[in-house]
Amino acid sequence: MKYLVLLTVLALWAAPLAAQQAADAVAPEGSGAGAVVTSPAVAEAQAAKAAGKPVEAQDWMVSAANPLAAEAGARVLREGGTAADAMVAVQAVLGLVEPQSSGLGGGAFLLWQDGETGEIITLDGRETAPLAATPRLFQDEDGKPLQFYDAVVGGRSVGVPGTPALMKSAHERWGRADWAGLFDDAIRLAEDGFEVSPRLAGMVALDALRLSRFKVTREYFLSDNSLLEVGEVLRNPAYADTLRRLAEEGPAPFYTGEIARDIVAAVRGAEGNPGVMSEADLAIYRVKERAPVCVAYRVWEVCGMGPPSSGGLTVGQILGMLEPYDLAAMGPRDPRAWRLIGDASRLAFADRGRYMADADFVPVPVKGLIAKDYVAKRSELLRGDDALPEVAPGRPEFDHALHFADDRSIEFPSTSHISLTDRYGNVLSMTTTIENAFGSRLMVRGFLLNNELTDFSFRSHEEGVPVANRVAPGKRPRSSMAPTIVRRDGVPVMVVGSPGGSRIIGYVVKTIIAHLDWKMDVQQAVSLPNLVNRFGVFDLEAGTWAADMAGELEALGYEVAVRPLISGVQAISMGDALRGGADPRREGVALGE
Predict the structure, then answer these.
(1) How many CB atoms lie under 10 A from the CB of residue 114?
(2) Catalytic residues, which ones?
(3) How far apart are the first and last CA of the chain?
C-alpha cells in the first residue's frame, strides 16, 4: 500500500506548485488525534484544545507546535529554568519531531521581555547570504528569474544557519540551567525513537519526490523506498550525535569545525543545483541584537521584530490603521470588520513590498512607516464602504532620497512558533524556520538545511529601479515572521506568533484583535477562522464560517478564494492567571503549572 501511495505522490511532480499547495493543506489534526500522548498533562491539554478552552496555570507556561517539544520545555521550566532555557530544549526537540518546519539548519527571530527590568530585547538569528552570492543568484543565463523549486531544491538556496548561535546567545544572556542538560530530551528521543505524527507522515508523502533527490535525505525519510507511517518509530542517531557535540562544546563545531565542513560539502556538492557557501561564511556568522518595533494600539503596546523581518512593522501598521475604527462594536462575523482588516493589510503589504528588507544593506524608513501621522493618513483610505479598488505604497518620511521597486517575493509556509513565560516573569516569543517544507531537502548530520535565500527577490531591479530585498553578500532575506509581545503599561498581557509564510502577519493580527477587541480568551482567539488579504484576493478558511462570508465580501468588491489556511498559532495570555492556547489546525499544545 505504501508503494502505491508513493507512486501517486510521484505523479504530483508534474505540477510542483500544486503539490506545494496540497502540502500546505494537510488536513488539520484537530485536537492532535494520532499524535503521541506522552503524559496526563499532554492528554489534558489536547482535551482542552479540542473543547476550545485554554490551559490555565500560575507559575509558567509553554505553547509549542508538538507535544514532545512542549514537554521538554515544561520539564526545564518545572525544574526552575528560565524561558530562555526552555526555548533551547523545545527547539532541539522540534528539529527532530517536526523537521519540515525548523531546526539547527535554519534561523529564527526572538523577542524577550525581562522580568526584572521590563526591557524588550530582540535577537536576529536570521540566515545570511554567502559572501559569494550575487544579485543574479536566482536568475538564469538570460537574467530571467528561476522557477521557485528549481531554485529551492539543492545548495543554491541555503543560507548560513543562525539557530544554533541564537540558542546559545539567548542562554548566555538569560539562562540559569546547565546548557548541556537542555539537550537531554532531544538526544533521548533521537536515540530511542519517537512516534511519527500525522502531520510529519502527511508532509513526507506529499514531498516524497523532492526528498528522494538526495541520498542522505532519502535514506532517512524514505527508508527502503517506502513512506513513513503514522505511529511508526523513527530514530535519528546522527542528530543525537550532533546534539551531543552542541551540548559539550556549544555551537563552535557547527560554525568552525567538523559540522561546518560537512554543511559546506553538502551545499557545494548538491548535484544539479550546487550552492556557493564557504567555511568562512559560517565562521563569521553572528546573532544580532535589534531594536524592537513597538506600536501603540488603543490602550496596549504591540512589540515585534524589526528588519530584516517585516513582521513587526506590518503588524504594527495594520493595527495602527485600524485603531480609529470600532471593531469591538462590529464583532468577528461582521464583513465590515473584515473589510477594514483586509484593506489595512493590503496597504501595509504594499509598503512591505517596496520598503522592507535588511536594514544593514538598504535604508528602511522604520520610524516613518509607523509614525502616527503617516499611519493616520493611510487609515483615512479605509473610510469608504467598499473594498479599495487598488492600493499603492505610501510615501513615509525617509532619511534617504532612495526609491525602490515593488516586490512580492515568494514565501511559502513551513515554520514553527514557541511562546514561553517562566516563574521569574520573563516572556519569550520566538518564530523559527527552515522556510519551505523540508527546506533545501539537503540533510547533514541528522538535520535539514534551510532554503531561506529564496525569501530574497529573484529580481534585482524592475525597470532599472533596484529592489530592496535583492540578494547581496552577507545580507539577510526579508521575512514575515512576527513573534509578538503585547503589553499594557509595560506589563505583558499576551505573547503570540505563528508559522504560515507571508500569511503569518494576518494570522497574528487576527489573534490579537480577537483577544483584545473581541474579548475572546486566548484559545478562542487562536481557533477563530482565518481570513487573510495580502495582495487583493481575500483568502477564507475552508470548512469554517469564514467561507460563508464569501458572498458578502464579493459584494464589497473583493475577489475571494476559499482554501485551507493552516496557521499554527501558539499563544499565552497573562492576567490573573496564565492561559495558553494552541492552534487546533496543528499538533501543538500548551502546558503549564
Answers:
(1) 15
(2) 415
(3) 44
Q: Which residues are 367's β-sheet partners?
A: none
Q: What is the pLDDT of residues 233-280, one digit of tens each?
A: 999 999 999 999 999 999 999 999 999 999 999 999 999 999 999 999
**Which residues partner with 290 through β-bridges?**
122
> CB count, 10 Å around CB of 337?
22
* Cell numbers describing residue 482: 512576527
Bridge partners, residue 433, by sequence: 107, 415
**Integer Cα distance of 52 and 97 in angstroms:** 25
Question: In three state form, how does the secondary structure of 113-136 look?
Answer: ECCCCCCEEEEEECCECCCCCCCC
Residue 409: phi, psi to the nearest 5? -60, 145
Q: Return the CA Rg of the chain.
A: 22
Query: pLDDT below 70 — which residues of the chain?
Result: 1-38, 399-413
The maximal CA–CA distance of the chain, rounded, in angstroms, is 62
465 three-state secondary structure = strand
Half-sphere exposure of 188 (CA within 13 A, CB side): 9
8 Å CB contact between 41 and 78: no
Domains (ranges, CATH) in the chain?
2-289+410-530+566-592 (3.60.20.40)
Segment holding 260, helix H or strand E: helix 258-268
3-state secondary structure of 305: coil
Q: Name the grid cell of 277.
A: 557557501
Q: What is the pTM of this model?
A: 0.93
521, three cell numbers? 480568551
